[in-house]
Amino acid sequence: MAEASDQPGVEVLCIGTELLLGNILNGNARWLAEELAVLGLPHYRQTVVGDNRARIQDCVLAAATRSRILITTGGLGPTPDDLTTETLAAVFETPLEERPEIWAEIQAKLSSGGRIPAASNRKQALLPRGAEILANPTGTAPGMIWSPIDGFTILTLPGVPSEMKQMWSQTAVPWLR
Q: Which of 49, 73, 103, 107 is most deeply packed, by most CB within 10 A?
């Protein structure tokens, strides 16, 4: 397992094969870079990785050796290629725990939109033991703030830009300040 860096820097890891292949423009990285500058936080690196467990793991382990904060976007949804949360838990050998309050919120959001929650949505209620919830006011994918090792904190945000921006403003920025 990696040991956290003494550097105070922030890294951004954008996760999604659609970004890597250029199918979708990575506006999240640009927007986050601007936001980090406004907060006065040193931002040293941005990485884009596809929906691949081993490659995500490699990126996270490398970030843990050279930065204090890793901000991820993407990979929090209910589909099989949404691997962020489970991969982070595996990297730091931490069990996932279902958060009943998240599952209840997901069910309520989907039901209010006339949709029936699928079994696959339930994985969005799983977070590594010890992680704090970053609430998602508009979507079903919550994020988290988690310090799996001393001196290294991970913030996960969804890849949907409108959801990411709202979560950033409402939850991540107050925590970072």
A: 73
Q: What count of other Cβ atoms lies within 10 Å of the Cβ of residue 18?
A: 14
Tell me the residue length of the chain: 177
Here the tokens at position 171 are 């939850």
- In whole angstroms, what is the distance from residue 49 CA to residue 34 CA? 21
* Residue-wise pLDDT tens digits, 111-157: 998 899 898 999 999 999 999 999 999 899 999 999 999 999 999 99
Nearest to 62 by CA among 50, 77, 45, 85: 45
Q: Which amino acid is at 151?
A: G
Q: What is the pTM of this model?
A: 0.93
Sort strands 69-73 and 43-49 into parallel, antiparallel or unpaired. Answer: unpaired
Residue 129 in 3-state DSSP? coil
Structure tokens at 125: 């209620």
